[in-house]
Structure formats: structure tokens, C-alpha cells
Design goal:
By secondary structure, this protein is an alpha+beta fold. The protein folds into 2 domains: 2-159, Ribosomal Protein S5, domain 2, CATH 3.30.230.10; 168-289, Alpha-Beta Plaits, CATH 3.30.70. It has helices spanning 67-79, 101-116, 124-134, 138-143, 180-185, 192-211, 227-230, 235-246, 268-279, and strands at 2-19, 25-44, 49-55, 84-90, 147-152, 156-160, 168-173, 223-224, 251-254, 261-265, 285-289. Strands 1, 2, 3, 4, 5, 6 and 8 form a 7-stranded mixed beta sheet that branches. A hairpin with a 5-residue loop joins strand 1 (2-19) and strand 2 (25-44). The longest helix is centred in the last third of the chain and has 20 residues, at 192-211. It starts with a strand and ends with a strand.
């Protein structure tokens, strides 16, 4: 049996630079992997086919509609392997939370199946091509890296090796999802001068993380353009952000298209207190975690 952890991500920076002719948007984003994770296990079976078992998943989702099943179908089709496998997915990452849970699960499915069927290293390009076809965030999780700059739809990546002392993360999901399509549908792009200024912040933040120089004094470089369409219309997300600010976080921002909000705190004891306080609010799922 093969077991893989599918870790969540947060976006430390997300600027939308333009809307493309194909309907997608070009981004400049900074992905960072965190400790919250789903778990996937894989075992070969005597019976042919793909069997997917999901624990704690969204109710009513058909097996063939799950991105893990879609990834497995693509894997066996591309590499010409006859499927005879059981995959068990144990969900822990909230759905519709801006944490890349589904994308991470898809990447973990490809990685796990490649290990189970002992694919050679030369298969990496084919796996990455499948990943890009499954979703914009899936290639980041294929890197198995702590952080990366993302360009294009997010699938063009430059790996970042995180260095130095990093803050604790208090992550809060308010219990109500936000859907990506809705967010981008109501997004208004920044003006060109603002986008240029944000690009400079993006590069500076990336450099600080590489050099181990990211401190609470530089936390103001964090940015997420998608807060603009989300916060006015999603009271639950807005309240989470306000409460984490009031609890004294060093930085607070929504991750991706929401609904999760994360707080960074360089004082571990304070982070524990913040997580405990937030955890008392009904409906919240709270994770005290770290960069991985």
C-alpha cells in the first residue's frame, strides 16, 4: 500500500493581471504549502477498474465527478496501464475554502499511482501535463515544494525554497464556501499602474522568503486582489478577517478565492491563544499550522 499526504496551500500574494480571450485570467501569485492535509492511500486489487472510497467528503458527489477519480482515469489512459486499484481519500481540508484541497488531492493521486505502478522518472513530464489539464493549481502540488511563484493561470511555476524563521499560521474556515467562478465573474481588474506596483511587491516578497528575511515588519507586502469582490458580499469571510485582526495577528488575509482566512503570527504562544479564541466561535473550523 502507498500512502500520500495531500497538503493544502495558502496564497501569500495574488494579483490578477488580465482577462484572457479563453475566459481564464492571468495571475501573479505566491503559493505556500501548509501542514493541513488530506490523506490518500492506494492498493492494487485483483478486480479490474478504479474504486474510490471517500471519507468525510461532500455528500452526494458521484465517484466519476471526484477530481481524484478523474486524475486516475487520465493516468491509466496516458500511460497505457490497465486499472486495478482501490484509492481511499480521507478529507480534512475544507471544500470551497481557497486552500486547493481538490487540486492537491488530484496531484497526490497522480504521484501515488506513479509510485504504485513504479513509473520511471522520465514519466514526470507526462504527469505534469495531466496535472495542468486537471486544474490551474494542480501543477503546484506536483512540485512537492514549500512555495512557488505562479504565472499564467497559475500553472507556470518557479520554485521557492523557504528559508529563515517563518510565522505560525492560524487558519479559519467560516463554514460557508465561496465558489471561484462567482469570484472571477465579479472581479474588476486593477489599473495598470497599480498592477505594476503590486508586481514589484510580489518580487520583493518572493526574494525575502528565499533569503530568510521575511519578518513581521514586511508582512504588509501580502496582497490578494480577490478580496475586493469577495469581502463586500460574503459577511462570514469579512467577519473572520475582522476578528483575526482584533485578536492581534501580525498579518491577516483571505486565501485564494476564499472562504478561508489566515493569520500570520511570529509569536507561537499568541498564535495558540488566537486559535483557541477563534475555535470558540460556532461554525468555524480552525487550524493552527505551519509552512511545510
Amino acid at each position: 500500500m502507498i500512502k500520500i499526504e495531500a497538503r493544502a496551500k495558502i496564497n501569500l500574494f495574488l494579483e490578477v493581471t488580465r482577462k484572457r480571450a479563453d475566459g481564464y485570467h492571468d495571475l501573479e501569485t505566491l503559493f505556500a504549502r501548509i501542514g493541513v492535509a488530506d490523506t490518500l492511500s492506494f492498493r492494487k486489487t485483483k478486480e479490474p477498474g478504479i474504486r474510490l472510497r471517500v471519507k468525510n467528503g461532500p455528500p452526494g458527489l458521484k465517484q466519476e465527478d471526484n477530481i481524484v477519480h478523474k486524475a486516475a482515469v487520465k493516468f491509466f489512459g496516458v500511460f497505457g496501464v490497465n486499472p486495478a486499484v482501490e484509492i481511499t481519500l480521507k478529507k480534512n481540508i475544507p471544500v470551497g475554502a481557497g486552500l486547493g484541497g481538490g487540486s492537491s488531492d488530484a496531484a497526490a493521486a497522480l504521484i501515488g499511482l506513479a509510485k504504485l505502478y513504479m513509473l520511471p522518472k522520465s514519466a514526470a513530464g507526462g504527469l505534469m501535463k495531466i496535472a495542468a489539464g486537471l486544474g490551474s493549481d494542480v501543477p503546484f502540488f506536483m512540485l512537492e515544494a514549500g512555495a512557488a511563484q505562479g504565472y499564467g493561470r497559475g500553472e507556470k511555476l518557479k520554485k521557492i525554497e523557504l528559508a529563515g524563521r517563518l510565522p505560525s499560521i492560524v487558519l479559519v474556515y467560516p463554514g460557508v464556501p465561496v465558489y471561484t467562478k462567482e469570484v472571477y465573474g465579479s472581479l474588476k481588474l486593477g489599473n495598470p499602474a497599480d498592477i505594476r506596483a503590486r508586481r514589484a511587491d510580489f518580487l520583493e516578497l518572493s526574494g525575502l522568503l528565499r533569503r530568510g528575511k521575511f519578518t513581521r515588519e514586511r508582512a504588509g507586502l501580502l496582497f490578494n486582489r480577490l478580496e475586493e469582490p469577495v469581502l463586500p458580499g460574503h459577511k462570514a469571510v469579512r467577519l473572520v478577517k475582522q476578528r483575526l485582526v482584533q485578536l492581534g495577528a501580525d498579518a491577516v488575509m483571505m486565501s485564494g478565492s476564499g472562504a478561508s482566512v489566515f493569520a500570520l503570527c511570529w509569536d507561537k504562544a499568541k498564535a495558540r491563544r488566537m486559535a483557541a479564541e477563534a475555535g470558540r466561535i460556532r461554525g468555524y473550523r480552525v487550524f493552527l499550522t505551519k509552512f511545510c
